[in-house]
Amino acid sequence: MSFRTLGLDANILKAVQEAGYTEPTPIQAAAIPQIIAGHDLIGIAQTGTGKTAAFVLPILAKLAGMKREANQRGIRALVVAPTRELVVQIEENVRAYSKHLPLKVATVFGGVGEHPQIQALRSGVDMVIATPGRLLDLMDRRHGDFSGINFLVLDEADRMLDMGFLPSIRQIVKALPRKRQTLLFSATLSREIEGLTHEFQHAPKTVQIGRRSNPAETVTQLVYEVPKHLKPALLVHLLRDPSMDMVLVFSRMKHSADRIARNLENKGIKTATLHSNRSQNQRLRALKDFKSGAVRVLVATDIAARGIDVDGISHVVNYDFPMHAEDYVHRIGRTGRAHAVGDAISFVTSEDHGTLRSLERFIGRGIVRKKAEGFDYNAAAPAVQAGDRERPPMQGNARPSQPARHSGGSHPRGNGSGRQGASASRRGGGGNNRWRR
Fold first, then answer.
1. How are strands ordered across the β-sheet holding 219-225?
2. Given strand 127-130, what is the order of strands in its sheet?
3. Average of pLDDT values for 235-242?
4. Using one digit for the tens of pLDDT, what is the confidence trace for 55-105?
5. Beta bridge partners of 342
6. 8, 109, 376, 390: which could form a disulfide with 131 (CB 3.0–4.6 Å)?
7. pLDDT at residue 382, rounded to an integer
């Protein structure tokens, strides 16, 4: 099948060809005709399968075919995504595919000045891509005309629920016209997501690619059992493998991510960090350097699990093992994207064995255990410097960070604005029951 069979505008086909794509992925082939036909749609697919283009391309095609009156300045399409990194990634796709169309796009997210965003909404754009917090804030202050919305996309809907955005999303949707086409995309189809479809959509078609909640089949999954104090040394040891040329490392906490990055830099490994304490400019710079190869390793907290869309990641490393199966799925989905292959390695300490068993039950398969050749597993714990001691948990409303996983092998709290909510209540609880449905 080629893109030409999907009913796309000639100018869009030209842009797709210039972007280097020759045939649609399964989610694109299944979703695009349904969207062009005017149906509401539920799209379930793992990360890295091309789902962004699955909704961007048909919306652009329909916008290109819709006549806008000379005095019509209202927004016609709205895409809501959980993190600012994901918003930026979607914008890059929209601009690439609409380069030959007279369409305007704007982004709305927190962490940066709001004045340019307000000006863009007032001047009139065809599509807005936004995080829920900043968007709702601007809508409450009546910036932008959303009365003519034809298309609404809720991307990474499961992640938005996890982050506590449901109240904001309900308020946003309530302010939009009832007659619209609503597209909901998610990597998982939980009862909560199914509830959203009944609330926001009308007779939606469902497109599901692959098994629910299972990692991409192109990812080689490995577990390295290691004493906790040897994790820094094991990471450096694995990174001596030149095949680990573009590595995403997940850490449990923000200060831990900084400490991991310092250790790698001290060993001569170019590294960047990505977490919510970094400014927007710092985060965008980290992603740019990682994409360009200026840095070999990006150390991130869970903020990056849904916000990074980078081709060519060779390895995902769970430096700290994730507490939730869904986090594992989304993290390792950063490699092995589309039809590419990749490795995902998880460091597992004695404290993680029960959680590992729960994960294996969840994904329906065991994960191969592996030993790093030439690594001394019996080494004593190094002396800990005062600046590198673990900090006590934050008090008050601070959200505990999630563990991260380690990748190696043989072969993206506030992401939008201050309005963002805390984790969903289902992330509470203890022990292995967190992964049971």
1. 271-274, 297-300, 247-250, 315-318, 342-348, 219-225, 368-369
2. 105-108, 127-130, 77-80, 151-154, 181-186, 41-44, 205-208
3. 95
4. 999 999 999 988 655 445 689 999 999 888 889 889 999 999 999 999 999
5. 219
6. 109
7. 63
If you count them, how many residues does the chain have? 437
> Which residue in 404, 389, 399 sits closest to 251, CA to CA?
404
Cα torsion at 93, 94, 95, 101 (round to 10°)?
140
Dihedral class, residue 37 (left if φ above 0, else alpha if ψ from -120 to 50, else beta): alpha
Domains of the chain: 3-208 (3.40.50.300), 219-378+399-435 (3.40.50.300)
Strand 151-154 versus strand 205-208 pairing type:
unpaired
Could you read off the pLDDT of 154-213 as tens digits, one per residue? Answer: 998 988 887 889 999 999 999 999 999 999 998 777 778 888 889 999 999 999 886 544
Q: How many CB atoms lie within 10 A of CB 277?
A: 15
Find all residues with CB under 8 Å of 202, minimum gap 6, and list them: 40, 182
Which residue is listed with tokens 């019996």?
A: 378
Percent of the chain with pLDDT over 90: 51
Residue 239: closest CA among 336, 294, 319, 310: 319
With contact defined as beta carbons under 8 Å apart, do 185 and 156 qualify?
A: yes
Does pLDDT of 315 surpass 60?
yes
Secondary structure element (H or E) that encloses residue 139, with its range = helix 132-140
CB contact burial 67-102 (16+ within 10 A = b; e otherwise):
eeeeeeebbbbbbbbbbbbbbbbbbebbeebbeebe
C-alpha dist (Å) from residue 191 to 15, 161, 165: 38, 12, 16
Cβ neighbourhood burial of 340 (10 Å; 0-12, 13-18, 19+): middle
The pLDDT value given to residue 100: 95
Q: Which amino acid is at 64?
A: A
Q: Helices 84-97 and 51-65 meet at what angle, rounded to 10?
A: 50
Q: State the DSSP H helix or E strand holding residue 31, giving kind and residue range, or none if neither.
A: helix 26-36
Q: Is 155 in contact with 80 (CB distance < 8 Å)?
A: yes
State the Cα–Cα distance between residues 296 and 246, nearest whole angstrom. 5
Q: Which residues pair with 273 in a beta bridge?
A: 299
Q: What are phi and psi of 244, to 5 degrees?
A: -85, 75
Query: Long-range CB contacts (< 8 A, 24+ apart) of 135-143?
Result: 135/80, 135/108, 135/172, 135/416, 136/168, 136/171, 136/172, 136/419, 137/417, 137/419, 138/108, 138/114, 139/172, 139/175, 143/118
429 Cβ contact list (under 8 Å, min separation 6): none
Give the pLDDT of residue 28: 94
Instruction: Look up the pTM and report it.
Output: 0.61
